[in-house]
Amino acid sequence: MEKIILDVDTGIDDALAILLAVESGRFDILGITAVNGNVPLDYVIKNTKKVLKHTGKESINVYKGASRPILIEPFHEYSVHGNDGIGGALSSIEVDSDDVADMFAPDFIIEQAERHQGELTLIMVGPLTNLALALRKEPRLAKWIKQVVVMGGLVSEAGKGNTLPTSEFNMYADAEAAKMVFHSGIPLKLVSLDVTKKTFLTSEDIEKLKGTHYYDFVKECTAVYRKYSEENYGVNGCALHDPLTVGVVLDPTLVTTASYFVDIETKSELSYGQTICDFGNLWNKEPNVEICLDVDSERFISMFIDTLKNTIN
């Protein structure tokens, strides 16, 4: 099984990504690292532990990471994820958010990367603060990691961002961290809004989970997200940004990719956090990111539903 660390800022789609990673049965999950993002860090930890308890995988350690971005003030997305980050779901599950593994998340990433050189995949579905801090402390990390698969950015659909017209939330939430990671030489695959916005989990899809362990949770936690999507995009659905990122590790053929040089804007008020892809090689720089150009969305949605359907109430 592939060794992974899942780095999350657990809002709704992070929670669904955890379900997919756990229930796929194809990962050796060394740990889950938490980072400030969709909601403050304490909520991220609480939500992550609730989801793990719901899956029966409480033995997976959660590591506390960065509580704020490197330079800017924290920015959260309550309008999409609800006041608690998971749409009020799992309210009956009690967890202790102080009961976390006794190691700072960036240090855990360094430790595991050194121990499993060439074998470890990082799946990053939140702001890249933890990885940036790890790289700053141990630059050799870039050589130790097998691959880093990142949910973030917008490369070919400029103007269709979800935070600024040019920018996706994870990049916007800590653009300085993203810039450090993109310039580190670490092997990166970017699963951007260009493809994730094509993977909508509709209310009809959710009904296919009826009778399974996760039906109530998926229906309840996505309600606020689906309402937001309906009001803003006219579709009652939930874009599976983070689950697709896990899916791409499970089956790389879900996406069509190509490698280009990509940089991160950190200075402009109009485009802070923009992922700028040099499609025409105007900068004459070596590619540093494998970007996703297209996705087999129907096949991925089927994968997601089928994986969760295997858990019967």
UniProtKB/TrEMBL annotation:
Q: Which InterPro entries match?
A: Inosine/uridine_hydrolase_dom, IUNH, Ribo_hydro-like
Question: Which GO cellular component terms, listed alphabetically, does the Swiss-Prot or TrEMBL entry include?
Answer: cytosol
What GO molecular function terms would the record report? purine nucleosidase activity
- Alphabetical UniProt keywords: Glycosidase, Hydrolase
What's one Pfam family here?
Answer: IU_nuc_hydro
Residue ranges annotated for the Inosine/uridine-preferring nucleoside hydrolase domain, each copy included: 4-301
Q: Which Gene3D superfamilies match?
A: Ribonucleoside hydrolase-like
GO BP terms: namely: purine nucleoside catabolic process
Q: Mind telling me what this protein is named?
A: Nucleoside hydrolase
Species of origin? Oceanobacillus zhaokaii
